[in-house]
Task: structure prediction
Amino acid sequence: MDHSEASRLMASEKYLLDELPPDALEAFEEHLFGCPECALDVRAGSLFLEQSKLALVSPAAATGRVPAEVREPSGWFAWWRPAFAIPAMAVLLLVIGYQNFVTYPALKGALAENKVPSILPAASLVGAVTRGSNPSSIAVHPGESFLLPLDIPSQNAFQSYVVELHNPAGGVEWSLPVSAEAIKNTLPIRAPGVDKAGRYELIVFGLSAQGEKVSEVGRYPFELQFAMAANPQP
Result:
């Protein structure tokens, strides 16, 4: 199933409503993993359904404290009584407005950003383990992502590895599991932006079959600096 067929079949909507036949369901789920637009539709629709269910639940019904003498027969028509319909519709309209003006634009903006090519600053760590006291340097803006191309020595016979980024205070910013197969090539690691400049270290540990750290394989220091914002022309 391609994206045009999924749109024609309204597969995202039918997927959320569990109305896809088994063959179409399997084809759409395979398509979903490779289609950011359909994944966005399903995620946004799922959020909307969850919020709608919460909006249509009465506080008294949720706590089970409705007196027996005022209980009325349940059913869809009960929701149209003014006592329920007006507050429920008001909340539902707020949910729809939030989804349309906040959630959807934010998700679509992030999706569009991922589709636009860009040049990221990079600190090459290829062979940096042998460079001694001359670490690479990189200039980024606060919060800006950057690249860390990395070579891990392949002579270490570990089943898997973990890469950790240590900040200037010695804390771990993040960790990334790496398979033994992946280290056969240079790893182009996309690092999330940070809010502190200084000397960072990318440290690689070999892992045992149980996923425990066995030994340090390599230590790759680099200096991270914050680039100065360009002054606007008068």
The first strand starts at residue 136 and ends at 140. The first helix runs from residue 3 to 8. Residues 35-115 form one domain.
